[in-house]
Every structure is written in structure tokens, then in C-alpha cells.
Amino acid sequence: MIELDVLGWVVLGFGALLAGFAKTALPGAGTLCVALFAAVLPARESTGALLVLLIVGDLFAVWMYRNDVDWRTLRRLVPGVLAGMVVGAVFLGASTDDVVRRVIGAILLALLGFALWQRRERARADAVPSPSRAAGYGYGTLGGFTTMVANAGGPVMSLYLLSMRLPVKAFLGTAAYFFFVVNLAKLPFQIGLGLLDAHIFAIAVSLVPLVVAGAFAGRWLASRIPQKVFEVAVLVLTALGAVNLLI
């Protein structure tokens, strides 16, 4: 039985608020939720509690952006994501928390460097192509792997969707449908690995109202944020999340 003090509940509450906000406004902020939950709950069990809240946020994001989805981009990701989730489940069962965090942090920093290089090349020449089908498989595999082991697939998918040059709402709608399906698929793995039991579920349910509040706040911001500001914010939040995982 996990006993939480007032500060612990405050941290989890802020993490839940941020989880809802990340789903409807800035996906890169999701990695910060991972850090907040892991600071209060046992690291592995924290992924189970956060998964419940992420699914709630997914429901609101899917509803809010139901008409803003790039289905072609989603179809391209499916094979890689399935493979990555299987590999991630095996890795999660065999690795320690520290190893998991550092591996994901290193992956994110490498992808961030690649994304910044792409942006620089695109600024030099408008002819820089969008990612190929093979790149979609690669990002999908990494996204499936990182979301399975630490609920940290948001930054990976954010970098991929940025490279596809999607408008803000199409970006958020595509990400919403992607993570709704992926997070539902993760539930059996989390339960089977013992990371989501009745006690952890009860903690998560008590935080659901804050996720809802964060989702509506994010929707309000998303309709007002300029495209360039949005892209820079996603990159900065991804970098912060990667560094946090490494240290």
C-alpha cells in the first residue's frame, strides 16, 4: 500500500493537469508528467497510474480533434509501432528503471538532433522532402518502444509529426488518435506485468478531474498558438524531457 502525503498529492495533481494539457495542446509536455509521477510513486508502478490518466486525456483529445486527422500518416506508423511495443514489453520486463530512463533519454536526444538538422536544411532549401515510408517505420518502432516502457512515446511522435509539417490542429488530432489506440493496447501488458493494480488504479481515478481541466485548458490554447511558437515549444519540451530522463 502506497501512502501519500500532501506534497505527494500536489505533485501528482500537477502532473495530472499537465497530462490533460499535453494531450490537447503541447504533446512534448507529456514527458514531464512521467518525471512527476516517478518522483512520487515507485517508478515502474507510476507508469500504470499515468497510463490511466493518459487514456482519459486521449478520449478528450480524440473528441476535440475528431475532424483534424492525417490518416495516411497514421497508417504508415502502424507496423513499426506494433513491433516496438513487443520489444518494449520484453525490455521492460528485463530492465531496471535507471536503464529504461537512460535508454529513452538517449533516443530522444538523438532524434532531437536529427529534427534540428532537418529544420536547418529545410530553411536552406524548400525542396527537403518529407520523411519516407522507411522513416515512418523507424519512428513508429521507437514510438512503440518508448511508450511501452515509460509512457514516453509523445516526444518521439512529436518529432515525427513535426517533420511531416502538419498544421497545429492536424498535428494534435493525428497524435490523439495514435495514442488513444496505443495506450489502450498497452493496458493488458501493464496489468500482466503487475504495474496496474486496484490501489494504483484508485489513485489514478482520483486525479481524473484534473486531467479533464487540463484538456480543456489545452484546447483553448491550441486555437490561439502560432505555428512557429508551437513547433519551438514542442522541441524545447522534448529536450527538457530527454535531459530529465538521462539525469
Concise account of the structure shown:
With 247 residues, the chain is mainly α. The protein contains eleven helices and no strands.
Descriptive overview:
This protein has one domain. Helix 2 runs antiparallel to helix 3. Helix content is 82%, strand content 0%.
The description of the largest β-sheet is: none
- Total individual domains: 1
Encode the helix/strand succession as letters: HHHHHHHHHHH
Query: What is the strand content?
Result: under 5%
How many whole angstroms does the radius of gyration measure?
17 Å
Q: Give the total of beta strands.
A: 0
End-to-end Cα distance: 28 Å
Separate helix tally:
11
SSE-based structural type: mainly alpha
Mean pLDDT across all amino acids: 81
Question: Helix and strand layout, with pairings?
Answer:
Layout lengths: L5 H19 L5 H11 L2 H22 L6 H24 L2 H28 L8 H18 L2 H11 L4 H25 L5 H9 L1 H15 L4 H20 L1
Membrane topology: Multi-pass membrane protein
Protein name: Probable membrane transporter protein
Subcellular location: Cell membrane
Features:
membrane; 82% helix; transport; 11 helices; mainly alpha; TSUP; 247 residues
